[in-house]
Every structure is written in structure tokens, then in C-alpha cells.
Structure prediction request, 343 residues.
Amino acid sequence: MKTNLPYIIFLSIFLVLMPLGNLLGIVETGTINLWGRYCCFAIAAIGVDLIWGYTGIMTMCHAFFFCLGAYGLGMYMTIHNLQEWQTVPDFMSWNGYESLPAFWLPFRSFGGAVACALLLTGVFAFLFSYFIFRRRIKGVFFAIITQAFALAAYLLFSRNETLLGGSNGLTHFRYLLGLDLYSANVKLGLYIATVLMLALIFFLSAKLTRSKFGKVLVGIRDSESRLRFAGYRVVGYQSAIFVIGALIAAIAGMLYLPQTGIITPGRMDVKASVEMLVWVALGGRGNLKGAVAGALAVNALYSLFTSLMPEAWQYILGALYIVTVLYLKDGIVGMFKRPSSRA
Prediction:
């Protein structure tokens, strides 16, 4: 019971008290929408923690996979939010297009958009990771390659020729599956769906880390050479967890888009991926509860300090990271684990 107490408290607050408070008029709809987005970031942080915290692979392109999911759903929403007289979005008509390009056609249905977004994410993640891991590239070199990949993706998506909205991205969404995204009830429903998805992904990820597969991941992190000597196909495990983490990020991106109403290439740049690493490091690397706590805490602090002292936020975030590295190597969650371990 004591072990389950954090989960009970979390679900009681985010799945019961906050929605009930919103229905009673105590919690504003804007607050619900804001925390829904934070929970999307928490989902993405779980994927980062599986790759970095449990497997020891520092990925600096995870925001790209987050955006692949968001763009996939965004293409569907763009098509179904056109005006009656429009056949293509404005950014296509400005480029001389009168009908949708062929690569947009699979995204005309909701199921097709979700399937294509997940499929593209999985294929990109596998092709990108498998051949790098086969070359046994790791550590800082892998981080640099993923950083370059994130920058290349950002530059590509920012070009108008890609027909994905250019630097302005995809926006102006009002409806999703016939639901009015401006409605308070719809925003509450999206928030509840996000919290439930966060709980589901957390539960499945926890089972994964406790399985034999998860033990092998920790073995790769602690001593990759020993596992290779023992006959384990390390490349397969590394590629598998990289794909799993990328798919989790894509799911988070699909939940994020309807709640924020816009997705731009700026969300996939290197800085966005580094922020995800900071969430995991501050919360507690190699601990799923830490990844969730770090994502929620850092984004809540971001909203607080950017409204009070916007110019100071980067310094505050940097100071938090330095303190964590020097004095709190187990992150926020580690602060609560030490006393019980001593007892």
C-alpha cells in the first residue's frame, strides 16, 4: 500500500480533484488545458528516460519524434478545418497548388493519420538508430549525431517547399472528429484522455523495465561490453528501445496538438530536445516517476517564472540543472528515497 501511495495521490489530484474542480468552477479551463499539455510532456519524458535513463543512450532528437506525431494529426486536422470554398490550405495555394499533394492523401482519415504518423515515426527511428548502433557509435558521438539530425529536420520542416506550413507550421484548428476544440467540455475531455494515456504508458513502461528486456537495457547502460561477450545482440535491444521511446513521443505529440492548437518546426529544434533531457535529469534519471515529476515540475516553473521574470528563466533552469548534477544525482525523486533507504 505504501508503494502505491504516490500513484494514488497523483491520480486523485489529476484525475479526480482537478476535473471536479473544473466542473464546479474552482479550476479554470485554461489551467486544465495547461496541465494537459504538461502531461503530454510527461509522456514524452517517459520515452526519453527509457532511452537515456535505463539504456544510457543520450538522444538529442526526441522532440523530432514528438513533432512527427503532432504533424501527422495536424495534417488530418488541417484538411478537415478548411473553409467550404477551400480545396487546399493557404500555404499550399500560395505555392500554386490547387489540390492536395499525394503524400497528404493518407491523412484524410483520422485512423489513417494516426497509423501513418506512428508508422513514419517507427521507420525513421529504426533506420536512424539501427545503422548507427551497428557502427557502435555511442556516448557524446551519438549525442552529436542526433543533434545534427534534429537541426536538419528543423531546417527541412521550416522550408515552404515541404508543404507543411513552413516556419509557421500547422494551425487554425477548430474541430477534431466533429468536436469543437474551443469548448470547455472538450478541453476537459482532452485533459482526462491525456492523463489516462500518461497512466497507461507509465504502467506499460514500468512493466517493461521490470521484465527481462528491461534488465538487459540496464545491463547495456552499465556494461555494454559484458553483454556483448555474453552473447546478447545489443544492437537489437538498443534499436528496439529507441523505436519504443520514439513512438511514445509521437503519441504525446498527437495529444499535445489539439490542446495547444498549433505545431511549428520550433518544437523540434535541438533546444526542445535538450529541454526533455533536463526534465529527466531534474526528475531523476533511470526512474519513471522522476521523468514524470521532472516534466511536470519544470514546465510548471517555466509558466511561473516566465510570467514573473521572463528574462531570468534560462538562468534559473541552468542553476537547477547544475545543482542537480552536483548534489542531487538521483534528481527530485531521489530526495524522497534516501531517508527510507537509510532506515
